[in-house]
Amino acid sequence: MTEEKMRFEAEVSRLLDIVVHSLYSNKDIFLRELISNASDACDKLRYEAIAKPELLAGDAEFKVRLLTDNVRNVLTIADNGIGMNKADLIDNLGTIANSGTAKFLDAVSKSDNAKDVDLIGQFGVGFYSAFMVASQVDVLSKKAGEDQAWKWSSDGKGEYTVAEAEMEGHGTQITLHLTDEFKEFTEEYRLRHIVKTYSDHIGIPVVLMKADGDETLNEASALWTRPKSEVTDEQYKEFYKHNSHAFDDPWKTIHYQAEGAIEYTGLLYLPTMRPFDLYDPQRKGHLKLYVRKVFITEGADELLPPWLRFVSGVVDSQDLPLNVSREMLQHNPVLTKIKNGLTKKVLSELETAAKKDGEGFDKFWETFGSVVKEGLYEDQSNRDRILKIAKFRSTKGDGWTTLAEYVERMKEGQKAIYYISGEDIDALKRSPQLEGFAAKGIEVLLLTDPVDEFWMPSVGQFEEKDFKSVTRGGADLNDVKSDDNEDSKDEKKDDTASDASLDALIASIKIALGTGVKDVRESDRLTSSACCLIADEMGMDLRMERLMKQHNRVDEISPRILEINPKHSLIKKLSDVAIKDAKAPILHDAALLLLDQARILEGEALPDPVSFARRLDLIMEKGLGA
Ligand SMILES: Nc1ncnc2c1ncn2[C@@H]1O[C@H](COP(=O)(O)OP(=O)(O)OP(=O)(O)O)[C@@H](O)[C@H]1O
C-alpha cells in the first residue's frame, strides 16, 4: 500500500495552529461540527440518489454512528453519506476549500488579538476543530459509486498522509485519537449530553454503539417538521447555528406552515449579528430548500430577493417534484410563489417588530437597514412597505426617525422631504448647505449608506412629497414660514450686501472662475459660511457624482454652482470693492480662494493645492499689512 505524504496549505497550518491553541473555550463543539458534516454528507447523497438510486447500494437508512474505545482513548464518528475520494480528501481537508474559513483567517490576521472571541465567534472552522481534542485524526472514506476507499491521517502539525484503504460500504469514518486531557469524550454520558444539546435537531439518527445495544441520542426528526409547541427555544437556536453556520443567537425565529394553493413549511431566522460576508458578491445565502425533507440546494436566489439575503433557515416544499434539479429551479412558478410568500412573511414580521419592539427593530435596522434599502429600488412590489418601516438619522436628535414621523414634523409651507448624503454623520451635520435649513428649523435627513444614492432618485417621493437634496438646485426656503426670531433677522436689510454691489461681485467672480463653475449666485441657504457648492437642479447630486467618480462610473465631476452668502461680512466687503472697481486684483484671488474653500468644505481634494497655498499666503501677508 503506497502512502503519500503531503503538506497542508500554509493557510491550513495557520488555521490549525489557532484552533489547537484554544480558539474556543468550549471544546464540546468539535462533535457538533463533525456530526453536522456527517449529516450534510447524507443530505448530499440523498439528493444525488434521486437521479442515481444505485449510489445507495441498498443502504438507504442514513445515520451517524458514534463508536468509543475508552481503553485506546478513541472516538469514531461514522456516516453512510456521500463519502470522499482521494481528490476530495486533498481538496477538502488539505486546503482552505471553504470561503468562510479563508475570511476567518483574514479577519484573525487583521485583529490585534488572535483570541478576540467576538470576532472568532462568527466563524466555524468545521472539520479542523477535531484537532482541539485529538493528537491524531484518521479519516477513512469511500465515495458512493466508487470502489476504492482512502485513508487520510494527520497529527495536525503541518503534514498529512493519504493512502489506499479497505472499507465496507460508502461514507466516512472519522477516528479521533483523543489526548489524555480529553478522555471524557469516550464517556457515554458526555456524548449523550453533547448530542442532546447541539445536535438534537439533526434529521437523521445519531446512534451511540454500545455493547448492550445501540442508543439513538437525538430526536432524529427534522426540526421544521415538528409542531411549534414541541420545539424549545434552545432547539430553535441550536438549529439556527447548525443550519446557518452562525454563532450568534437569532433575533427572530419564524416557523410556519403555508397552506392553500402552495404548501410549504418555512423556518426562517433573522440574525442578530451581521454575517461578515454580507456584501461579498460570491456569498451563498443560508436558506436551504428541501422537497419533502430531501435537501435540494442552499442559498438559491430563487428563494429570497437579495435584499433579504441575511435571512437563513429552511423551506420545505410539498409541491415541487422530488427530482427537481438545481437548474430547473430558475423561473419555476412554484418557487416564485414561495419566494413571494417568504418575502411577505418576513416583511410582516418586520412591520410587527417596528410597531411593538422599537428598540429591537432599531438595532436590527442599524445592522441590516443598508441591505433592506436595496429593496427600495430592486423590488418595486414591496417598495411602499419597505419605505414605511425604513429608518433614518436626521438633524433632529440622535435617534432614528421614520418618514411618516418626519412628515408630521414638517414646517408650514415646507413641500419637500430634505436630505443630505455623505459618508460620515458628523461631517454631514456640519455641512454649510444645512445652515439655512437649521435657521428655519427645517429637519434634514442625514443619509450615509452608499445605497441611499441609488434608491433616492428612483423612489422620488413619500406620501406625495418629493425627496430633495439640499446640495442640489434652489433651496426654496422662502416659502417656509420662519421661526419668529429668524423673521426679524431676515428683515434687517442693512445686514446684507446691496443688490447692485452683489451683482458686481458675482460678475467678477464669474469672470475669474470662467468654466470652473457652472454658475455663481446668491444663496438663501447659508447663514454663517461665506460660500458653498451646489449641484444643478437637473444635474447629479454632489455626493452621488463623487461616489460614481470613486467607482469610475463617471470620468469627470461636472462644474458646480458656487453660492455666496450676501450676509457674510467677507462677501459684503468684497461686494463693496467690486462695485467701486470691478477689476481690482484682489477679486480674482478671492474668487479662486472662495471656490477652493467651498471644495474643502465639501471634503473634496483641491485640483491645484500649490496655487491655493500661494494665494492664501499672499492674502495673509496683506492682512498683516506687509
Ligand atoms: N463526513 C464527511 N463526509 C463527506 N465530506 C465531508 C465530511 N466531512 C467534511 N467533508 C468535506 O470537507 C469539507 C470541509 O469541511 P469543513 O467542516 O472544514 O467545512 P464546511 O463543513 O464546508 O464548512 P463549515 O465548517 O463552515 O461548516 C466539507 O465541505 C465537505 O465537502
Automatic annotation (TrEMBL):
Family from the record: Belongs to the heat shock protein 90 family.
CDD domains linked: HATPase_Hsp90-like
Stretches the record annotates as A: 1-326
Subunit structure: Homodimer.
Gene Ontology molecular-function annotations: ATP binding; ATP hydrolysis activity; ATP-dependent protein folding chaperone; unfolded protein binding
Region listing for Disordered, in residue ranges: 473-496
Localization in the cell: Cytoplasm
Annotated gene: htpG
Keywords, ordered alphabetically: ATP-binding, Chaperone, Cytoplasm, Nucleotide-binding, Stress response
Protein name: Chaperone protein HtpG
Region annotation C: where it falls in the sequence: 547-626
Compositional bias per record (Basic and acidic residues), positions renumbered to this chain: 478-496
Binding of ATP, residues: 33, 37, 79, 84, 92, 99-100, 122-127, 172, 326
Gene Ontology CC: cytoplasm
Purpose: Molecular chaperone. Has ATPase activity.
Primary localization: cytoplasm
Organism: Thalassospira profundimaris
